[in-house]
Write a structure and sequence with these properties.
Layout (H helix, E strand, L loop, with lengths): L13 E4 L1 E5 L11 H6 L9 E6 L5 E5 L4 E5 L5 E6 L4 E6 L5 E5 L3 E7 L4 E6 L1 E2 L2 E2 L3 E6 L5 E5 L10 E6 L5 E8 L2 E6 L5 E6 L4 E6 L10 E5 L6 E6 L5 E5 L4 E5 L5 E6 L6 E7 L5 E6 L4 E6 L6
Parallel strand pairs: 1-24
Antiparallel strand pairs: 2-27, 3-4, 4-5, 5-6, 7-8, 8-9, 9-10, 11-12, 13-14, 14-15, 15-16, 17-18, 18-19, 19-20, 21-22, 22-23, 23-24, 25-26, 26-27
């Protein structure tokens, strides 16, 4: 891949390779037509489309399968189990410090997996003042329990009306951004004073400083990418390095706190890197969902500390 000099200053980004951690087992792949695939991948075979990786306290990795409304658990020894299958399109999934599993569902809004043992889904927030959401995509949980989430729908440069919300623990719903260009993944910085939002169709990540009253001000583009799609899911490490999955370039791009691209993590499977999660005993492994092939990749990111 050619380096884009607008994305770094002096030193080109280092290349980090990936390897396959696990793949959707054959028994869970379905070769049937779905409404989701017709709308999002017309004409392309879609036996699964995984997203939303998140680890629980026991080290199991949860992921969603959007077109079939499924949530899977991958145990530390890489065994797959179906947690729940329901009528919905789960996009993002996060697990909070107490083990609560929350899902951003394109059909239904914000959902909770009430009991992983019996696979019961419970609506948390389905509308704003009786107005349906455009289509929720991803979420991030703050340390105090507030839920930040994106309402993407079919927005883009032609319709910059995507929204970013915060649902406080008291139940108040704040609209932080209502001019988003396909808002997707989002994450708070380590101080929780800045919110980063992937704007897929803008091919950029926006930086939104949070004011004392909880509003945002002076929102700007933190970094830009290129390609037919754009930034998707994101995460951030304790050093403030931002990991951005790109849905069409087969990479996760790593940006320093100043917005410079310092590394690119290359998929060894397909080109659709959709989301990321940091894991491992020392939190030095990056797990990546490559959605088209139904593959979970892993990369050693400890090299970023050297």
């Amino acid at each position: 891949m050619k380096n884009n000099k607008m994305m770094y200053l002096e030193t080109p980004p280092r290349l980090i390779e990936t390897k396959i951690f696990s793949e959707v087992p054959a028994e869970f792949r379905r070769k049937v037509r779905t409404d989701w695939a017709d709308a999002n991948r017309p004409g392309a075979p879609t036996d699964c489309f995984i997203e939303g990786p998140s680890f629980d306290a026991d080290g199991s990795l949860y992921i969603v399968d959007i077109p079939f409304g499924r949530i899977f658990r991958i145990s530390p020894d890489k065994k797959w189990s179906l947690v729940v299958e329901y009528e919905g399109w789960p996009n993002g999934l996060k697990i909070d410090a107490k083990g609560r599993i929350l899902v951003a569902d394109y059909m239904h809004g914000i959902m909770e997996l009430l009991d992983a043992r019996v696979g019961k889904m419970l609506p948390v927030l389905t509308a704003r003042n009786s107005e349906s959401f455009k289509g929720c995509n991803d979420l991030h949980i703050a340390s105090n329990g507030d839920i930040y989430f994106t309402d993407q729908g079919q927005t883009g440069l032609h319709d910059p009306t995507g929204r970013v919300y915060r649902l406080t623990t008291s139940g108040r719903l704040d609209c932080l951004i209502n001019t988003g260009i396909s808002p997707n993944g989002l994450v708070l910085d380590p101080s929780e004073g800045v919110l980063f939002v992937a704007m897929t169709r803008d091919n950029s990540v926006w930086r939104a400083p949070l004011m004392k009253d909880g509003s945002v001000s002076k929102v700007g583009r933190f970094c830009s990418t290129f390609g037919p799609s754009g930034p998707d899911g994101m995460t951030m490490d304790k050093a403030g390095q931002l990991f951005v999955a790109h849905a069409s370039l087969g990479h996760v791009f790593v940006f320093a706190p100043n917005g410079e691209m310092i590394a690119r993590i290359k998929s060894c499977a397909g080109q659709s890197c959709t989301n990321v999660a940091i894991g491992g005993e020392n939190r030095d492994r990056l797990y990546i969902t490559e959605s088209v092939t139904g593959t979970v990749l892993v990369a050693d990111i400890s090299v970023l500390d050297s």
